[in-house]
């Protein structure tokens, strides 16, 4: 029974990776609809654009996608709640400017990653045709976990990805590793950052490479934002 439940959970996570969903979202979150803007979402949920940008790590608020899930209330135990009411009651442009400057200082990704493989980046992220980055190297090159977490998928059931692993790092972040020659970990296994989890290969690909994706709340995001410079 437990194995079946785990399979169902993994299947749902794979679906999240493949595309943003359309179902209900948890309290404090909002699913972007056609015609929405960050300004409109903030206004209708009685918060500020600066808060929505900070809570969701949005470098470009104009780049939201239909189906994307956004946090519209401050995380638990966050002082951001005060920002919401304070910004609404602010009576001076100077106060607003200070709040915006502070939010921009705090804005940033919520997970720190290491490079999942050595090699050359042959394709970058564009959010449309490329949902991640492609790293090329020789077959068998070690693929490592970009951050600690739990393996929630290990298999080749998602067309176009070949032998793939998905690691869940927390309730918001997933990373995916595709086209591997061999998978060295199993579903349900806990892995540590930097631990080898696969060997680079060319399954479902026309060349040997690792396709690496980062997903935040189900939405593809540029891995370069989270990876250290080389």
From TrEMBL:
Pfam families: LysM, Peptidase_M23. SUPFAM superfamilies: Duplicated hybrid motif (SSF51261), LysM domain (SSF54106). It comes from the Bacteria. GO terms for cellular component: cell division site; cell outer membrane. GO terms for molecular function: metalloendopeptidase activity. Gene3D superfamilies: Glucose Permease (Domain IIA), LysM domain. This is Lipoprotein NlpD. The lineage of its organism: Bacteria, Pseudomonadati, Pseudomonadota, Betaproteobacteria, Burkholderiales.
